[in-house]
Amino acid sequence: MRVVMFGYQTWGHRTLQALLDSEHDVVLVVTHPKSEHAYEKIWSDSVADLAEARGVPVLIRNRPDDEELFERLQEADADIIVANNWRTWIPPRIFELPRHGTLNIHDSLLPKYAGFSPLIWALINGESEVGVTAHMMNDELDAGDIVRQEAVPVGPTDTATDLFHKTVDLIGPVTIGALDLIAAGRTEFTQQDRSQATFFHKRSAEDIRVDWTWPAEDLERLVRAQSDPYPSAFTFHRGKRLEILAAVVSQGRYGGTPGRVFYREGDGVVIVAGSDARTGRNHGLAITRVRTEDGREMPATEYFTTMGGYLTGRP
């Protein structure tokens, strides 16, 4: 089939690479300009550079809403558009333009985790698996019929970075497998159960601020979800920002006030956690590695030279 590709960052790059390596013909690529946004500088392999290296025409757009772009799409005479990590709304006159419409690739197991940062949110929420979905685009974001979907398990120590590498390897087979079904004449696919749909917003600094009233199990997943190269989860100690690079749920149960720097356990320092921590039934979060405000990384047992005091959400 003749394919126009809309995409950005490493997700779009992997999609374009799979298309270029397939029997399908990529006739035009549309991508976003480079961004200085913290999350958009992560996994930032260039779609434009790959397309240009392979001799495919490239258009750079923030939004696909101008007449020149529409005319170029009409001239491309595509059988299908394939989109992955396109960051702005694609209007119906574009996604309905090709003969077979538009296939969107999304890194979650739709209908759950539509929207943004699905791997991070899924890890924070304790999901047992994540994956990639190829679905037909319609008027509602990430809501169209599912053409192909593949899942991978979430391991007990997996970080968001681990899950990225697991799922990015699914992009090629999911994309090409879905295109092959469409090229073979399939037109009926699996409708999403909208009663199971969830929709998540972009991550921001507020989302990585540690709330010590969360249970330790949730905080441990937050730390893993904010693994390098993502911005680390952070708290404040004695008025200065402290990033938590690694932590585990404590073996013992610790009672008191959430945020209290309480006890050395193994290689970590236990912080009291949970809204009902006063009952003494909760596990704490045993922090094992931190980064200080001036950029120094060290074991938590080296940083916390004495017990006592509190970690707080604000200076």
From TrEMBL:
GO terms for molecular function: methionyl-tRNA formyltransferase activity. It holds the Pfam family Formyl_trans_N. Keywords: Transferase. It comes from the Bacteria. InterPro entries: Formyl_trans_C, Formyl_transf_N, Formyl_transf_N_sf, Formyl_transferase-like_C_sf. Residues 204-305 form the Formyl transferase C-terminal domain. The keyword Phosphoprotein does not apply. It is an enzyme of class 2 (transferase). Gene3D superfamilies: 3.40.50.12230. Its EC number is 2.1.2.9. Residues 1-169 form the Formyl transferase N-terminal domain. This is Methionyl-tRNA formyltransferase. It comes from Streptomyces atroolivaceus.
